[in-house]
Amino acid sequence: MNLPELGVKRPVLTIVVFFAILIVGIFSLLNLPLDLLPNMSMPSISIITNYPGASPVDVEEKVTKVIENNVATVPNIDKINSISKENVSAIAIQFNWGTNLAEAANDLRDKLDMVRDELPTGANQPIIFKFDISMIPVMFMGVEANQSYDDLTNIVDKQILDPLKRVPGVGTAFAFGGKERQINIILNRTRLESYNIPVSQIMNILKANNMNMPGGPITIGKKNYQIRVPGEFKNTDEIRNLVIGANRMGTPIYLRNIAQVKNGFKEQTWSVRVNQKRGVMIWVQKQSGANAVAVSKAVRKKLKEIQKVLPSDVKMQIVMDSSIFIKRSIGRLASTILWGGLLVFLVVLFFLRNIKGSLIVAMTIPFSLIIAFIFLYLAGYSINIISLAGLAVAIGMVVDNAIVAFENVFRHRYELHREAGEAAVFGTAEIGNAIMASTLTTIAIFLPIIFIKGIVGVMFKEMGWDIIIVLAASLFAALFFTPMLSSLLLKEARIKIPTTKVFRIISEKVGVGFDKFSLFYEKLLNWAIHHRGRTILYGILVFAVSLVLLNFIHKEFLPPTDQGQVQGTIETPPGTDLAVLTHIMHQAESLAVKDVPERQNIIIRSGSSPFSGIALAMGQKEGQNYGRLMMQLVPKKDRKRSDREIAHDLAEKIQKIPGVSDVDFAQQDAFAQMAGGGKPISIEIYGYNLTVTDSLAQLIKQKMEHIPGITGIEISRKKGQPELWVNVDRHKASALGLTIASISTTLRTQVFGSTATLYRKGGNEYDIYLRLKKSEREGMNNLNNIFVTSVTGKHIPLSSFATISEKAGPVELDRKNQERIIKVEANIYGRKLGDVTTDLKAQLSKIKIPKGVEIKLAGTIEQQRSSFTALLWALIVGILLVYLVMAAQFESFIDPMIIMFSVPFAIIGVLWALFITGQSLNIMSMLGMVMLVGIVVNNAIVLIDYINILRGRGKNVIDAILEGGKTRLRPVFMTALTTIFGLLPMALSRGEGSEIWVPLAVSVIGGLLVSTLITLIFVPTLYGVVETRLKGRRSFHRLEEL
Fold first, then answer.
1. 913-919 — which CB contacts under 8 Å span 24+ positions?
2. Cα–Cα distance between 238 and 243 in angstroms, integer?
3. In this structure, are strands 812-816 and 819-828 parallel, antiparallel, or unpaired?
4. Is 709:831 a contact under the CB 8 Å cutoff?
């Protein structure tokens, strides 16, 4: 008993199966998380090491190189990139795709444990950081305060962050900005000298007198006791009254005699303003796999509870919420699926002119979607714009099998006058092999997409599985549910056409129009067979001429998306004081408030955040001379300008603020952040001679300035970081009993400061921080008079053994694969990446590259090249798989070759569609090309399969072609139009996130439209040529009669 027969003979079983699947599907749908993108992990691990107070050169030499040399031997490393900046080293290690990152991280930890002793004193423990898409914050918020500002950091930490971290689905929450408490020990240099007390002695005494030590067990009588010696500081008076030495008379010297002890704050290296008020910034990250929308909703609910217990002057504001964009994007895409489904139903209805038949076909849509939701749930996937885009593409294809099956059942029932059950079984079985082959060809084209390596595979693997599962479900429905429903609903002896006036008018016009087209098609096909040479020549000419369109279609990696946010970095000259930078950022804030009426909220941050290493690893610009501005905009429908237009206009105005050296407001969406951030254009220059590479970088920058569309050109290796070099005379220092280590440590503690120990109170920990008072550590004279204690206890001023010179060091040092590189980077505005790349390559070809120097294009250009290459290979492999499936189906190597000629016409259809609509050739439109290979051959399969059936029944070639073309015209048109109309809402969509999926829909619609029209003529004509010439059959005798 085959599947159609089982469905017809066991209708109750069939209905039970359907409802069982429906129940499981609804459960799966309700439990699927919502997110913007699939949960993706890049094969990359970053190592962040903070080295406070160190210059970029020191960071590179003492931290970056040391770590790179040790981790380079870890298996499966593809490349190593590093950035060394003031205070921080960020090393990004990219592994080969498919590498087990958990094992790689363990290997890295082992290497870092081995290198820990080689790192300098003062460098923090290296942190391993693995980035995935879930680490992009789901929410940014600001907390502002007036009277409570001094204690705002503690309020945020205890009363806001702790409750937020307990919200289900929240991975973590960070805060920065505000004041951080610290016990400041402000040393008096004059008194230190007079008492002859070295700073190292104070550090050691503070550590030794601030600890709780266990004394071990003791038995007294019949009881056992644990001895404890509580010795931690309980208040600042205990610190002030700490004995740190004695004078010659034996009189104790207290810490209060040589220093002020204050319960104060850390010196701020950054500041935050929220909606023009000083405050603290909070970002919330969700757990991997958690529902972003649900997390956001739960956080908002918790914030309302938290606000009630906060001081009256402390206010919280949500500045950015990614769930808003997610909900709008998902909602927009879901609506395109619903509208697509409705249009598909109407197409089927007006073609079949039978409501029951239309409902039978349309039932395939919910069934297939339900199966898809079950698969997503079981596979641990989410509902996101990629998975939904796959379902939107499939919405028109899922009915194809049911249309072909039902149309044949309908023909057997009302044209061949079989009984309903017999027509259902026989009609479905007759075309069962054809629709199975057509489904397998479509599935075959998605298999290479699943196994593609690189970012394309990561992005589209989920979509590929979605469509495969949906198509398999539609095949099962066509062979199982469709015949069962047909046997139950087609029992009337006559076709009942709905009597609604509107439907009747439209239906009659559709019917008359199609009948006319059918007659025209039959004549045209007859002419084509009679003039087969010219027909084939015309087809080849159309294809060749259409390829010229490639020169007029813009090319880019991904279409930019409008997420309703503006984020930008403002750079000032190296060495800019925080107060100066803050003043500049206030001016930028005022400009944004004045010139961007579309804003909802605004946050500015001045200086380097505590997470600068992570930001560097994610491709952002960080440093003491950088500020950052972020704005949430009103919904897309409520503004005339895109987020990129707003950012571009604002950046031009901020650039004119005195003291601003560079502005980077290039909008990065989630895709760009996932791929590592950075600017779209990046030219890497390799070479050992720094003078030569610096000159070459300047020359490339000059060439780029003349290319339209390139903005924000920046050379990575900047100079101008003010440095004071302490040049120690080693002979003098040695004679005085001083070492380089003691000199450096003393300088660092007295000028920059050092943490001696920790002060604990009320569950909080604060640094006990030593440094000279401000008036004794600023200025060249004070620096020269800083004393260093020798091994004999003598205090020696710095000027006695060293000279100080002022120099300009690098701001940032970049390395790739353990070699220094210099990068020339730029943004793009107003032009497509492909067009700019063409002009850039032309300019670079005119430059004479010095010997020993190499340049490479990187950034988004490299991503675009590798992605296009991956999709091209997927296309080639897909074509081969489709051909093999058809060869197995037809038991022939020639018939599949004929059918494959429909593919080139699909490609030219894509080119024409992209050209007419102004869409670019990007990875989404290329994905549409790949999909088309599996879609367009289906119509040709159904056509050729039926022609072969007629040949098997004794008809000659010409009769079989003409009858087959005429008989299969309706189902071919219906399947093509259902797919086209199913995608039409997607192609016309203009809401949030639509920029991503519109090129995909446009390319599939264009390719299918052109290929269907041409395939109906070209493929049967080519079939006739092959049958008569290559197969040696003489069946064209009727041509002489026509």
1. 913/1002, 913/1003, 913/1005, 913/1006, 913/1007, 913/1009, 914/549, 914/553, 914/999, 914/1002, 914/1003, 914/1006, 915/549, 915/552, 915/553, 916/1006, 917/1002, 919/559, 919/998, 919/999, 919/1002, 919/1003
2. 10
3. antiparallel
4. yes
CA 423, 428, 431, 433 torsion-angle sign: negative
Residue position matching structure tokens 């469905």: 7
Q: Which pair of structure tokens corresponds to residue 408?
A: 């044949």
Is the pLDDT reported for residue 391 higher than 60?
yes
pLDDT score recorded for residue 1042 = 39
Percentage of the chain beyond pLDDT 70 is 95
863: its two tokens: 């991503």
Q: Which domains does the chain have, with CATH numbers?
A: 1-31+353-496 (1.20.1640.10), 38-134 (3.30.70.1430), 182-265+722-810 (3.30.2090.10)
Buried/exposed 590-621: b ≥16 CB within 10 Å, e otherwise: ebbeeebebbebbbbbbbbbebbbbbbbbbbb
Locate 26 and state its tokens: 């609804």
- How many Å apart are CA 105 and CA 111, to the nearest integer? 10
Q: Name the range with the highest mean pLDDT among 338-347, 531-540, 995-1004.
A: 995-1004
Residue 663 backbone phi and psi in degrees, to 5: -130, 130
pTM: 0.76
φ, ψ (nearest 5 deg) of residue 360:
-60, -45
Residue 420 contacts residue 490 (beta carbons within 8 Å): yes
**DSSP letters spanning 505-541:** HHHHHHHHHHHHHHHHHHHHHHHHHHTHHHHHHHHHH
835 alpha carbon, distance to own chain's centre: 23
| Residue 750 to residue 752: CA distance in whole angstroms | 6
Please give the DSSP secondary-structure letter assigned to residue 62: I
Higher pLDDT among residues 868 and 914, named by residue: 914
For the chain, how many residues are written? Answer: 1042
Compute the C-alpha angle 1025/1028/1033, nearest 5°: 160
Would the CA dihedral through 130, 131, 135, 140 be positive or negative? positive
Distance, in Å, from the CA atom of 321 to the CA atom of 273, rounded to the nearest integer, reads: 18
